[in-house]
Design goal:
six-stranded antiparallel β-sheet; 5 helices
Length: about 725
C-alpha cells in the first residue's frame, strides 16, 4: 500500500496555475486584442481582465503580433505607438510584471511608465520599468524641481548577463511612495535598486515637462515607444510578498516558456539537524517574511541582520509542548507562529504595533524575543536599538491564546530604559521566565542591566547595583559596553552564568577581553570561576573584573556564544585572528578552576568574516560540544556560503560537517531553538527556506500529469524526504 501511495505522490497531476487577484489593479493579455490580422495596427482598447476596469487605449496604432512571445500573441511597439491608461490610474504603490521582448537598448525606451504623483500637479518622480534613458533634469513644471528617472536602467551600470536584450523575459518593477523605494528585476533577479536621494548616473539633457494623464504601456513620458514587444501586463497596488511573487512568476514563466529563477530564501523553515551529518528534516513555516528576503532589496526599511530579528523557542506548559517562532514580515508587522504538540501552525500578525522606530528604519539590531511565565503568559519584546523598551504580553495563557495582547509597551522600572538594545528575557532556574537583561546606551558607551520577574512584575535583578545595573560601561575610562554572549545559563548546581566581551565603540577593532562570572544558586553574589568574589556592577579594569581570556584590541574579536555541558564545563565559542592574521573559530572552556583556549578551525586567507558574519553558536550536552558557524569565502562572497558544524566529544578532536550550503546563508547565521536543545537535546534551526526553482517551458502547467521535479543536491534531498514523510504518515 505504501508503494502505491508513493507512486501516486510522484505522478500526481499538476493543478493549473492562477494569478493572485487580491489588490490586482491591471491585467492586460494580448490574446484579448482585436486587430486587422497578424501585423495589423491595433485600435480601440486593450481590455483589463482585473476587476479594476483599467482598460488601456491604443494611441498611434501599435501592431498586433500573433506569434509574438512564446508562440502567443503580443503587441509590437517597434514601429511606434503605445497604450494610454485611464486618468485615474494613480496608485501610490505599484508592483508590475511585464512579459516582454526587448530588441535593443534604444535611448528613451520603457515598457511601462506612470506619473506616480498624479497630474497636473507634479511634485515627484515618474516611475519607469527597466528604463533605458539616462538621468535627466526635469523642467517646465512650474516648481523648479529637479528629478531623475527612478527605476532600473539598462546601460553601462548593468552587466550583460543581467540584461537579456534579445530574449523573451519577464520584467518587474515595484515602487512605493512612503517610504520611497523602487526596484527593477529581470526574470526574477533584481537588476538595480535606488534609495531615496540617489541618482542613477550621468546627467543627460534637460527636457520639457510633458505631464502624463496617468500612465502608459509601451511608451514613455515624452511619447516615445518601447523598443520591443509586450504580451502581458499584471499590476498590483501592493508590493507582493515572496509567496505571491513566486506564484506570479511561475504562472507567466510556464505560460510563455521563459526560464525564471524565483527568489531563494525568502521564507522560513524549521530544520532539525541530527547529531551527525547534514539536516534530514525540514518544515516550511512561512513562504515569506524572512528578515533578509521578505523585504525586497529596493525597500530601504528592510530588516537585515543575522540572529537578532528572529526568534524560536520550545516550551512545555500544562502538559503540552509549544513551539513558538517570532519574526518581522514583509510589511514590518511583528508575526508570531505557534504550534501545539507538533500540530498545525497558528499565525498571529501584530499589525497594530508602533512601527515608527527601528522596524521602519530596517535595522538588524531590532531584536524580537519572547519568554513564557509559569502562568503561561507570553511576554514579547521587540524593536530595540537605543530606544525605550517596547513589549507586550498575551492576554491569556498560551494554550487558549488567540492573539490579543495587553500590558505596558514602555518603561518597566522607569529608569535607565530610554536607550535600550539587546533586550533579552531569560528562563530562570524553574524553566519559566525569570530574568531580563538589556544594554542602556550606545556602542562603546552603555550599561548592562539585569531585572528579575517576581511573578507579577519586574524588580531589579539579584546582586546588582542601583536599579539593577550589572555591568558599568558608561562609568569606565574609556567608556565601553559589554556585548553579552547569549542569555544567562544555569549549571547543574543552579548557578547562573554570564559571558561577554568589551567594546569601546569602534566595532571589531575596539573589542577586547572575554569575561565570565556566575550568580550563586541563592542569588546572593557573583563569583569568578575560581570562586573569587566579583564586585557588581562590574567595571573594566577593576581588581575583581572576571577576565576569562585576555585578548588585545584589533584582534578580530567578533560575536560568540557559550554553553554548559553535563559536567558543568563552560564552553565559549567565538571568532578572532590567529597568529597569521586569519580569522578563526576558537574554543574557550573551563577546566578545574582555570580557563583554557584552543583553535578549532584552520581557515586560510580566503575568508572575509568581518564583512558580514554572525558569530558561532555553541551547544553542549553530556560530553559533546557543537559549534555552528556560517562560513563564506572572500574570493566569491556571494557564490558559496556554508552553514557548518564543528563537533567534539570529550577529549577527542574537532570534526567539521557541512550542514547546508547556498547563497541564502549570505545574510543569515544560525538561529537556534535553545530550549529544544536544553530540554531534549534536539538541534532545531530557524533557517531560510533555501528554495530556488527555475520554471521553463518544459514545466508546463497544461500537462495532464507530471513528475515532481527533484534537483540534485540539498533541495532534491529535501523534496524526497517530504514525499517520504508524507508516505510514512499514511
Amino acid at each position: 500500500m505504501r508503494t502505491v501511495l508513493a507512486f501516486l505522490l510522484l505522478v500526481s497531476s499538476v493543478a493549473a496555475q492562477t494569478l493572485p487577484t487580491t489588490d490586482m489593479i491591471l491585467h492586460l493579455d494580448a490574446a484579448d486584442l482585436s486587430a486587422a490580422g497578424d501585423g495589423g495596427a491595433i485600435s480601440g482598447t486593450w481590455p483589463d481582465q482585473s476587476a479594476a476596469g483599467n482598460n488601456a487605449t491604443a494611441v498611434s496604432g501599435p501592431l498586433f503580433d500573433a506569434d509574438g512571445i512564446g508562440g502567443l500573441p503580443a503587441v509590437n511597439f517597434a514601429s511606434g505607438g503605445y497604450f494610454s491608461l485611464p486618468t485615474d490610474f494613480k496608485p501610490t504603490t505599484l508592483d508590475v510584471y511585464i512579459v516582454a521582448y526587448l530588441s535593443s537598448a534604444a535611448a528613451n525606451t520603457s515598457p511601462f511608465c506612470t506619473d506616480r504623483w498624479g497630474s497636473p500637479s507634479f511634485t515627484g518622480y515618474n516611475f519607469y520599468v527597466l528604463s533605458t534613458r539616462n538621468t535627466y533634469t526635469q523642467a517646465g513644471d512650474g516648481t523648479g524641481a529637479t528629478s531623475s528617472d527612478r527605476a532600473g536602467r539598462v546601460g553601462s551600470t548593468q552587466t550583460a548577463d543581467l540584461v537579456p536584450l534579445t530574449t523573451d523575459c519577464i520584467l518587474q518593477g515595484r515602487w512605493r511612495s512612503t517610504p520611497y523605494s523602487t526596484t527593477s528585476a529581470i526574470n526574477g533577479k533584481d537588476v538595480v535598486w535606488i534609495s531615496p536621494g540617489s541618482t542613477l548616473g550621468a546627467t543627460g539633457g534637460s527636457v520639457a515637462y510633458n505631464p502624463l494623464a496617468a500612465g502608459r504601456v509601451g511608451g514613455n513620458q515624452e511619447g516615445g515607444s518601447f523598443a520591443g514587444r509586450i504580451a502581458e501586463v499584471v499590476a498590483y497596488s501592493t508590493i507582493q510578498n515572496g509567496r505571491d511573487r513566486r506564484r506570479i512568476l511561475k504562472y507567466l514563466a510556464r505560460k510563455y516558456g521563459v526560464t525564471v529563477a524565483t527568489p531563494r530564501g525568502d521564507g522560513l523553515s524549521l530544520v532539525k539537524v541530527p547529531q551527525s551529518g547534514a539536516w534530514t528534516e525540514r518544515e516550511t513555516l512561512t513562504a515569506e517574511g524572512h528578515p533578509r528576503y521578505g523585504l525586497y532589496p529596493g525597500d530601504p526599511d528592510r530588516v537585515i541582520g543575522s540572529g537578532g530579528p528572529k526568534f524560536c523557542m520550545t516550551r512545555t506548559y500544562d502538559g503540552s509542548e509549544y513551539r513558538i517562532v517570532a519574526h518581522y514580515d514583509a510589511v514590518r508587522n511583528l508575526v508570531i507562529h505557534r504550534s501545539i504538540d507538533g500540530g498545525a501552525w497558528t499565525t498571529f500578525n501584530f499589525d497594530g504595533i508602533d512601527k515608527t522606530q527601528v522596524i521602519h528604519r530596517g535595522d538588524g539590531h531590532s531584536y524580537v524575543s519572547l519568554e513564557l511565565t509559569s502562568a503561561g503568559i507570553l511576554h514579547v519584546f521587540y524593536d530595540h536599538h537605543n530606544n525605550t523598551i517596547r513589549y507586550t504580553r498575551s492576554n491569556a495563557a498560551v494554550d487558549t491564546w488567540t492573539g490579543a495582547t495587553t500590558g505596558s509597551t514602555s518603561l518597566l522600572l522607569g529608569t535607565n530604559e530610554s536607550q535600550a538594545s539587546y533586550v533579552v528575557p531569560m528562563r530562570g532556574r524553574t524553566g519559566s521566565m525569570g530574568y531580563l537583561w538589556f544594554r542602556d546606551g550606545g556602542n562603546g558607551n552603555g550599561d548592562q542591566f539585569l531585572y528579575q520577574w517576581n511573578g507579577t512584575d519586574w524588580d531589579a535583578g539579584p546582586a546588582t547595583g542601583t536599579a539593577g545595573k550589572l555591568i558599568d560601561g558608561k562609568g569606565s575610562s574609556p567608556t565601553e559596553n559589554a556585548y553579552m554572549f547569549g542569555p544567562m545559563q544555569f549549571d547543574s548546581q543552579g548557578r547562573g552564568w554570564a559571558v561577554w566581551m568589551w567594546d569601546e565603540g569602534g566595532g571589531v577593532t575596539e573589542r577586547h577581553d572575554i569575561c565570565a562570572m556566575r550568580l550563586e544558586a541563592d542569588d546572593s553574589a557573583w563569583q569568578e570561576l575560581d570562586g573569587s568574589a566579583v564586585t557588581v556592577p562590574v567595571v573594566q579594569g577593576a581588581a575583581s573584573e572576571p577576565i576569562a581570556e585576555t585578548i588585545a584590541q584589533d584582534s578580530g574579536l567578533s560575536d560568540g556564544s557559550f554553553a554548559i555541558d553535563g559536567e558543568d564545563v563552560v564552553h565559549v565559542a567565538y571568532l578572532r585572528e590567529d597568529g597569521s592574521g586569519n580569522l578563526q573559530v576558537f574554543h574557550l572552556h573551563s577546566t578545574g578552576g582555570t580557563w583554557a583556549t584552543e583553535q578549532v578551525s584552520s581557515y586560510g586567507a580566503g575568508y572575509a568574516w568581518r564583512d558580514n558574519t554572525s558569530g558561532p553558536v555553541c551547544l553542549a550536552k553530556g560530553k559533546t560540544v557543537h559549534i555552528l558557524i556560517r562560513e563564506s569565502a572572500a574570493s566569491t562572497p556571494t557564490a558559496r556560503h556554508e552553514l557548518c558544524r564543528y563537533t567534539k566529544v570529550g577529549d577527542g578532536s574537532w570534526t567539521r560537517t557541512v550542514v547546508a550550503e547556498g547563497p541564502d546563508w549570505q545574510h543569515c547565521g544560525p538561529v537556534v531553538d535553545f530550549d529544544a536543545w536544553w530540554d531534549k537535546g534536539e538541534i532545531i534551526l530557524l533557517a531560510p527556506s533555501d528554495e530556488e526553482t527555475k520554471y521553463t517551458a518544459e514545466d508546463n502547467a497544461n500537462s495532464a500529469a507530471a513528475s515532481i521535479g527533484v534537483t540534485p543536491g540539498s533541495n532534491g534531498r529535501e523534496t524526497i524526504n517530504k514525499v517520504r514523510q508524507a508516505i510514512l504518515a499514511k
